[in-house]
Each structure stands twice: as C-alpha cells, then as structure tokens.
Amino acid sequence: MENVYLRPGLRMMIYNHTRHRGFRMAYEIEHAPIGFSFNLSQEICMTLNGGGKSQVVERSPGDVLTTYLPLTRGVVESAGGRVAGVSLYFTPNAFRDLFRKTPECLKHLGLNTYRTLPEKRLFQQSAFNGGTCVILRQILECPYQGELRRLFLEAKTLELVALNLFELENNDKRDGSSLNRQDLERVHKAHHTLLERLEDPPSLTALSRLAGINRNKLNQGFKQLYGKTAFNLLRDARLSKARTLLKQTDLSLSEVAFSVGYNSQANFTKAFRAHFGQTPKTVRQPSNPDGQQRMSRYYRGNVRHGG
C-alpha cells in the first residue's frame, strides 16, 4: 500500500500487491474525508455503524464507493490474494475548491457553506465503466518519478472524480424507462426474495445475482416500481412484520426484533419509533388468549428453525 499526498487536503492510496492470508481490521472515523474507493480485484465485506444505521456492504471487483461518513465505525474483512485498487480522500474544504458550483448529485451534502462540515452523510456504491478502469491501470503503471509522478497522479485523480460524478448525475436523471419487461420481472423477483428473507437478507450484490439483473438496474428498478431503495424497502417490510407480531402474538420484544432481522432490542426499538412514531410496547393490543398462544408457538418455531 502506498500513501501519496498530492496537495493539501488530498491524498491517494494505491493498492498493488498480493496478500497471503485473510485480513480483518476494525476502524473508527471521526472527522471523515470525502472518499472515492475503486476496487479492482477483491471481494470485501464491510460493516458500517453510524448515523443511526447499521449496514453490511459487500464489495466486488469493478465497484466504487463514494462516501462521506463522519462518526462511523465498523470492520473491514477480505480474503488473501491479489489486492489492486485506488482510493482518493479529500478534506471537505479541498473538495469544495474543485468546483465553482456544487454538482447536482452532491447538493444534498450541504457543501456550499465554506469552512463548515457537510450537513449529511453520503454512501453510494456503483459499478465503474471501462474508462475508469483504464485510468486506474495508468495509475498503477505510472512510469514517472518525483514531482512529475505527483503531477500525473493529481491529474488522474481529477479525471476519476469527473467520471464518477458524471455517472452519479446520470443515475439521478434516469427515470427507469431503460428497463424492459424482463428487467422489471427480475426486480419483482428480487423484491419477493427480500420479503422472504427479512431475518437474513442477501446483500445487494447477492440479490442482483439471484434475480439475474445487474446491481445498478436493480437499484433503478426498485426506485421505479416502489419509489424506494432496497435498504428502505427492507426496513419498511421488517418493521411492518414486527408490528403484526406485536399485535398478534405474545413474543417478547427481543424475540420480535430477532425474528425480523435486528440483532438488538435497542436498535429495533429505535428504528420502530422513528418509523411509526411510537414504541413497540405501545402497539400491543389485547386479543384472544388462545389464538394468541397458538400464534406465539407458531412464530417461535419459525424463529427457532430459521423460518
């Protein structure tokens, strides 16, 4: 791994080596950079805990993460083997200085006010195109040394940022009309899979493979058909099922939380209150005791056996 400081507030990390064993590292971010991380060779699993959310991200060769994640912690894991990729990190002020006017796809961050930190978090995972791959190879095979190398890498950094933001802006402008009937059927299949596996959902990458559609089209289709991202659809379905369990069974709060995929009662309660405006305890209503006991036994059996 090589850490290259290109100018104040901007650095590049270059990965181009072989790791002979697996890798696992805990991390904690306080003052986050705005980052672009391009992956050329590895399967990577990341957990992200911050902003009131917990998320597991699976990365594959050919993807890029565009991020601004202050006050975030988690774990990064990958197997041994070839490691190749490039990451770019800007301080918010250095990133502002690139533009006379903030691109549309980044306006929600609140970058316009100089010398203040962005107002919102950013997490965007997408596949990069062939043009980006060419630039990454040029970086890995850079023939220059000293100041000429720094100048070359800085130029390639600006190319990568421009290409990536262009892709983000195009994604924001698409209305889903490029999806054909077969694509839409696959999106429906992916949605059904999510609903069937609330307690142990597949990653977006795995879900796209199961449905036979690429990840970008799957995201596009979810927004077109349901008006929401996969993450929001999953959250809403989990909490809707949880409310049904609370009303119709005598499962404890922790059992309900576990049965819909939450690993802690506290996280479940927080998410439930944010979504419905009331705590899980206030949702419970009296029902027929015999029916409630039968339903409780049914759900406990399903939870115990992974159903």
What can you see in these coordinates?
The protein is of the alpha+beta class. Helices cover 45% and strands 23% of the residues. The chain has 11 helices and 10 strands. It has helices spanning 92-96, 130-140, 146-173, 181-196, 204-211, 215-226, 230-248, 253-259, 265-276, 280-283, 289-304; strands at residues 2-7, 10-19, 23-29, 34-39, 44-50, 53-59, 63-68, 72-78, 81-90, 122-127. The chain has a 6-stranded antiparallel beta sheet with strand order 1-2-9-4-7-10. Helix 4 (181-196) packs across helix 5 (204-211). The longest helix has 28 residues, at 146-173. The chain is globular and about 70 Å long.
Question: What are the salient characteristics of this protein?
Answer:
single chain, 307 residues, alpha+beta, six-stranded antiparallel sheet, four-stranded antiparallel sheet, 11 helices, globular, disordered C terminus
In short:
This protein has 307 residues and is α+β, with helices and mostly antiparallel strands.
Topology diagram in text:
Elements (H helix, E strand, L loop, with lengths): L1 E6 L2 E10 L3 E7 L4 E6 L4 E7 L2 E7 L3 E6 L3 E7 L2 E10 L1 H5 L25 E6 L2 H11 L5 H28 L7 H16 L7 H8 L3 H12 L3 H19 L4 H7 L5 H12 L3 H4 L5 H16 L3
Helix pairs in contact: 2-3, 4-5, 4-6
